[in-house]
Amino acid sequence: MIVRRVPPKATRAGGFRRLGQYVIAPVVPGSAPAPESGVDALGSYIADQARHADRVEWTRVTNCQAATVRGAISEIDATQALNTRSKADPNYHLVIAFPPGETPTREQIEDIEDTLVRGLGLGDHQRISALHNDKAHLHLHVAINLIHPETFKAAKIFRDHTTLAQLAAGLEVKHGLERTSHEIPNDRTGRTPEAAKTMETHTAQEPFVGWVRRVAGDALIAAGAGEGGWKSLHEAAARYGLEIRPRGAGLVIGKAGEPALMMKASDLDRSLAFKRLVDRFGAFEPAAADARRIAPEAEYVRTVPPEKREDQTLWSRYAEQRDRALHDRGLAIADINTADRRYRDAVSAHYAAKFAEIKRLKLTMGIDPRIRYDALKREQANVLCRHREATTAKRETARAAHVILSWPDWLRRHAEMGDAAAVNALRFMATKQERFTDTLVRNPASAAKTVTALGVKPKMSRNGDATYRLPDGGAVVDKKDGLTMPSLSRAAAILVLEMARDRAEGTPLAVDGDATQKRALLDAAVQGRFDVRFADAAMEAERDRRVRELDEEQGYTEPDRRRQTLAMFIANRNAWPAPGDTTFYRPLAETDAGDATLVATIQLRGVDVAVWRQGDETLVQDISGQPDAIAYTLLPGDRADVAAMRSEEPYGLDIETAKPVERGRDTDMEID
Hints:
Layout: E1 2-5, H1 9-12, H2 15-24, H3 41-49, E2 56-62, H4 69-81, E3 91-97, H5 106-119, E4 127-132, E5 139-145, H6 160-174, H7 194-203, H8 208-225, H9 229-238, E6 242-247, E7 250-255, E8 258-264, H10 265-268, H11 274-281, H12 289-292, H13 312-361, H14 369-401, H15 407-416, H16 420-429, E9 441-442, E10 459-460, E11 466-469, E12 475-479, E13 482-487, H17 490-504, E14 510-511, H18 515-527, H19 537-554, H20 558-575, E15 584-587, E16 595-604, E17 607-614, E18 617-622, E19 639-641, H21 642-646
Parallel strand pairs: 15-18
Antiparallel strand pairs: 1-3, 2-4, 3-5, 4-5, 6-7, 7-8, 9-14, 10-11, 11-12, 12-13, 16-17, 16-19, 17-18
Helix pairs in contact: 2-4, 5-6, 8-9, 13-14, 15-16, 17-18, 18-19
């Protein structure tokens, strides 16, 4: 469970009404930002949320007289208006996120919310909360009014990260939830800033704080504890391209030459706090010239570490596209800036001439020159304002035309397009432990693909998991070691079987789900007549029995069953061809002639099949019950006459009772 506060600057614009709409807008279709809120990124996202009414599972109003969410928002707005002294943000936005696949009950989630809010000292304050399911993980948004509903005083919240971390750790134990590292600060080191964690999460780049701790931390701590004074500390920093300098009431470690890139020295170790160093070394002394001349042994560079790049070919493709986008964007922005400066110079010259004309004439048709001056200034300001807005729009258009993706986002985009290498790279890069413990069907990993039959595309997570949300409320997660169904439905069971069948290539499916999930898969396999087998003997026997009963009920014969199996296989191959396979699959026909190359012999639902390649077509032949079929005498890649194959007609034997037929020496051969 991850608990964090959304930075206040993201909740300030628009007041509580905007924050409340963000939290609950999904269940209020057609809602939009308040007109007085202005246009910003959050407002745009709220408007987008309002078009999706299915992502909120439930909402809750606490400590309000109003019974509805809309009424609660208006009531909280009125409460905040009664406090006219506080200039701070009166809203507190708390997010509680659970690991993918973890679904606590509503009672548990409400207890977690109540405990965290009480721990912050806001138990009596008004709030609304909503549980969202639009991600692979459940997450609760809690919007809290910091203005007390009775005293109208604004609550002051300090160091809430530590409080939330400690409470969350206890709640995980209380409710039996998955344990998560909450980075509770200790007496020696500070916590990693939120901005650094966000950077690492979204870009996979190592943040400056992490690099300093990993590379230069030991040397700086040793210099701070030594007897060399400020000179020794400056020299230790210079060896890593760093500098120590005062800032405000403290001390920071920054990259030399980049004043904006820095971290608090006490975040590296408490022994480097400014007061402790001053007590040990005396008043601060700037770095001497000798320290500034030291050649650095290592320097921080903003890039993705090599250990997060499994596939160097992919990284080269990404780097090439990123550099080209940076270059093209830079040229476009430079042209816009040049045109902007040229226009501003022209406007300045134009109005300078008008001002000079007024000054030269002294009197202008009986109008006081000061009035003319003021009118011209307003006119010039309006012209420049309109130009500034137009230039800003041009810059945004240029940035949108040359999008610069981070490494994880680039991988996610290519993974959603079906790039298996990108999926593997995402999963390799994920540093967290696999969170799923309830894998339903274990299968070899494969690329995420578009689910054409159900009209659903996957949403890729940063660790390579693909989440499919289906129209009937079901959900399927495709992770590294298999498939899961966090939300059970008929469409979800069908999708699991389709994906598992496509990857298994005739091998039995290993199912580890609970009894309900196994029953759903069995029902879908029987009703859809899926050509799959289960590794679990009881499940396979049940599937076979029910399929036979269904065949008898519908008058299906063994030839019907074989023909349907071949038809399903051919349709599947034509709908979702394997990478590099551009041939068209069809049954072997009476009119076929010439030579064909054997690709493989496989078994589908008890039907023995030979797959032949002829030109740009793949011919599928039923060889059930034919121990002397030509395909069994050949190896993949061998050629045979199609006319001789046509003379082989499947025997009218009961496939299940006939003598088993050896599948040949190419059992593990993949069809490509």
